[in-house]
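Task 17 of the worksheet. Students: predict the tertiary structure of the chain below and write it out as structure tokens. Keep your answer in the requested format; marks are given for formatting as well as content.
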Amino acid sequence: MDSASPPSPPPAQASAAEASGASNASLRWRILRRALLARSASTSRAPEETSNDQQDKNDTNKISRKTSRGFDLIECHMLPISQSTKSHGDSSSRNENIVECHNDVRVCYKLPCEGSPKLNLVYRREDSLELNDIVASNRYNIDTTGLVCCWPSEEVLAYYCINHSDMFRSKKVLELGSGYGLAGLAIAASTDADEVVISDGNPQVVGYIQQNISINTETFGQTKVKSMVLHWDAGQASEIISSFDIIVASDCTFFKQFHQSLARVVKSLLKHSETSQAIFLSPKRGDSLSKFLEVIKKNGLSCELIEKYDPTVWNMHKKYVSDDNRSWPNYNEEHCYPLLVRINSHSK
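Model answer:
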């Protein structure tokens, strides 16, 4: 051993570290187990929760960075699913990809803007990912993250867009990798955008998007809103090339294998004008965000990275970092706090 090398930890310390690692690994396997336990579609009600089930949830909360409330920027509450599916358009207008799952829940959002419009979104219940979802993911080269939950970055994106509503006036807007579509729907409900297209590469997710559009039609005023299956690796239809004034996305830069495809989609679909732009909100997640910015520049696009883009979001972030607010277990700046990336189709 080199004399400059750090000494090995004492056996007791090594054992403690190994035990901690084994414990964390065990908890992660529990998260995966809960996510993959398929529910029978014929089950009329959920089984009663046992004390072991509750302990299992408590244990996994110690290691999971996910939180159901995120930055808690938009007031919301859960309502019975039956209240969101009655009398909302006729079946002939519904997208063929719409899926109705026994694990669906309805969340009502009260948007923080003039008139306080409400949005009703249907989600899969958290931790209800099923094995068939994984099979479809592998078959069609899509990910299942859009089915898991409304991710914190999506809520931050929606909040940011609501507070910058003027930029969307009379614009044609596209949301990429939208999941259940909170940000796109918030833009449609709170701004005077001409058209909002809400897209995802997973047809199951797009089914939920279309359902959420149908539920909220009366909230959009004159803004046209539609859903679209948009796979970044696929060639795009000619009618949408260079047709969008603004593209928005949240937490879409994590998978490095999709960076090149995502950059090409932004470049091909964004209008070639000085006012067109893409707004991404993404955590650093190691070097994934910085690698994406490199790809953006290699594709001839200019970009700007902004850390403090909203005082409310920033103050919430500082509270989580300082442990003043314990409602987000294991909050980690690199994985949880979304930075704002502003992308332009022209080089400055």
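Marker's comment: The domain at 76-81+101-344 is CATH 3.40.50.150 (Rossmann fold). The longest strand covers residues 104-110.
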